[in-house]
Amino acid sequence: MARKFFVGGNWKCNGTIEEVKKIVTMLNEAEVPSKDVVEVVVSPPFVFLPLVKSLQRPDFQLAAQNCWVRKGGAFTGEISAEMLVNLGIPWVILGHSERRSLLNESNEFVGDKVAYALSLGLKVIACIGETLRQRESGSTMAVVAAQTKAIADKASNWANVVLAYEPVWAIGTGKVATPDQAQEVHLELRKWLHDNVGAEVAATTRIIYGGSVNGANCKELAAQPDIDGFLVGGASLKREFIDIIKSLTVKKSQL
């Protein structure tokens, strides 16, 4: 079964009301392949979610950039999964490397977050990836396997999980993993899922790539057999995001 191409746009901590309206207008006017062949999810900052939801084209979906690990309550500054459900936001990004490194979110904490969000019916873009030091020491697969195991130990509904491999050294640096480097890790991740979770999960789970993806490199990356789409950072705020969405045409020509 072919895995539906997935493109996520992580706006990170960017935007004003005026800028957000401009980005949404640009996306709304874009001609892109139908939602039957590519799933597009954009992830603005929390404060803009209702605005984008009210303006955005119906074939694109929304994701929050994070949510709390359990039910809401006395957790100042946090956003609960229940709130996202209440707002009608179907997706959430969890375990992004910026949160792992800047806010010290551990593998286990991310695994708990993923399991809790899934339990409430949210779909999860779960992020994993190694640092430059880890890659240079040859421990890439050990690192991403440990991150994936922490999710697999707690999560059951893999149908609602997209795994985003984002090598930390390639995020926002302009460095990008070569197509061969990215494909190698994606293939190993799929093998890990096959051996540790199950053959069906390995065959159907989408593993997307993130890390300085742009209009210039997306087609070469998309052509790799185990790259099922992208989680895009800075480029998702620009017109080239449309080119990245269209990069699935490379995939279709292979089918």
Automatic annotation (TrEMBL):
Biological pathway: Carbohydrate biosynthesis
Record keywords: Isomerase
GO cellular component, one term: cytosol
GO term, biological process aspect, one: glyceraldehyde-3-phosphate biosynthetic process
InterPro entries named among the record's database cross-references: Aldolase_TIM, TIM_sf, TrioseP_Isoase_bac/euk, Triosephosphate_isomerase, Triosephosphate_isomerase_AS
GO molecular function: triose-phosphate isomerase activity
Pfam families on file: TIM
Domain of life: Eukaryota
SUPFAM superfamilies named in the record: Triosephosphate isomerase (TIM)
PANTHER family hit by this protein: OS01G0841600 PROTEIN (PTHR21139:SF37), TRIOSEPHOSPHATE ISOMERASE (PTHR21139)
Record family assignment: Belongs to the triosephosphate isomerase family.
Subunit architecture: Homodimer.
Protein name listed in UniProt: Triosephosphate isomerase family protein
High-level lineage: Eukaryota, Viridiplantae, Streptophyta, Embryophyta, Tracheophyta
